[in-house]
Amino acid sequence: MLEFAGAPHLPGVGLLIRSGRTAVGREELADVLGMKWAAFRRARPYAEDGFPVPVSSADARVLLWDLEQVEAYRDGRPQPAIPAVDREEDLLDRREAAVLLGVKPRSVDSYKTDPGFADHVVVVGGVEHWPRAAVLAYAAGRGAMSAPSGRPKGSGDMVPRDLLPGRIAELLDANPAVTAAHAVDVLGISTPAAQRHLQQERAARIVALMRTEPGLDAEGAAERLGYPSAVRRAALKAAQELYEAS
User: Fold this and answer.
1) Helix, strand or coil for residue 85?
2) Cα(17)–Cα(57) distance, rounded to whole angstroms?
3) Nearest to residue 194, comparing CAs of 236, 165, 152, 224?
4) Residue ranges of E strands in 4-109
5) Is residue 36 part of a domain?
6) At what angle do helices 218-225 and 191-212 cross, to 10 degrees?
7) Tens digits of residue pLDDT in 96-124
8) pTM summary value
C-alpha cells in the first residue's frame, strides 16, 4: 500500500473516503441506525451535535459518512479517527479529483469517458469516485499544459488526439468565451479540430449543468456558463443531440 507521506491535504474538501474505510449514504445510514426511511427523513439524525462529519467533499449534493464512525456513534463509543495519511487507494469524488488535477470539476466531467478514468470508477452511495492512484496516473499521462506562441507552419496536430478533450476543457475553465483561433495557437491543432472540440465540450457542460439543476433549459445553462452568442447556437444544437442520445 503506497503512502503519500508529506503530501498536502486537498484544500476545501471533506475528509475523503480513506483507504480501508467504508462510506455510506443516507439510505445505508438509516439501516445502520436501525431507523425506517420515513422516520430517518423526519429526524435527520446526521444534523445532531456530535454526529460524525461527512466524508463527502465540501458542497457535495450527496452526503456520505464513514461507516466505522457512524457505528461508534450509534453504540456510544468514541469515534475512530479518519486516517490523515494520503494513500493510493483513497477514493476521490469529482471535486476532490479536480483539486488534485488542478482543474475545475466540469473538466473532470469531460475526462470520464477516457479509459484512464472510466476503467477505475467506483460508485459509492450513488456518487462516482476514483482511486487517488488512478487520478495521479491520469495526470501524469496528460502531461503539463503546453502553450507555444503559435503553430509552426506546416505542422500537424501537436497535441495527441486522446489528450485534446482535457486540454480543451482547461481552456474553457480559464475562459468560457475562448475562441477556436486561440485554441489553435495554444494547442497547435487545426481550426476544424479546435471548433469541433470546443463545441463538444461546451455541449457536454450544458447538458451536465441541466442535469445538475432540473428545470434549467439549455439556453439558460449556456447563459450561466458564459458562452458568447457567436458560438452559442452551435453549442445548443450539439447539446440537444447529446441530451437526447443519453
Assistant:
1) coil
2) 10
3) 165
4) 23-24, 65-66, 91-92
5) yes
6) 110
7) 988 888 888 888 887 877 777 888 999 99
8) 0.58
Task: Dump pLDDT digits (tens) for 23-62.
Answer: 999 999 999 999 999 999 999 999 999 999 999 987 788 8
pLDDT at site 47: 92
The Cα 235–Cα 237 span in angstroms is 5
Number of domains present in the structure of the chain: 3
Task: Give the torsion sign (CA, 75, 81, 86, 92).
Answer: positive
Is 107 part of a structural domain of the chain? yes
Average pLDDT over residues 134-145: 70
- Beta-bridged to residue 131, according to DSSP, are 91
CA distance 186 to 163: 14
State which residues form the domain around 131: 91-142
Cell of 37: 426511511
Q: Are residues 106 and 68 in the same domain?
A: no
Q: Is residue 148 part of a domain?
A: no
Q: What is the mean pLDDT of the chain?
A: 82
What's the residue count for the chain?
Answer: 246
How far, in Å, are 1, 35, 72, 86 from residue 5 at the CA level?
12, 40, 28, 7
Cα–Cα distances in angstroms (integers) from residue 235 to residues 38, 50, 178, 195, in the given order:
42, 48, 13, 10
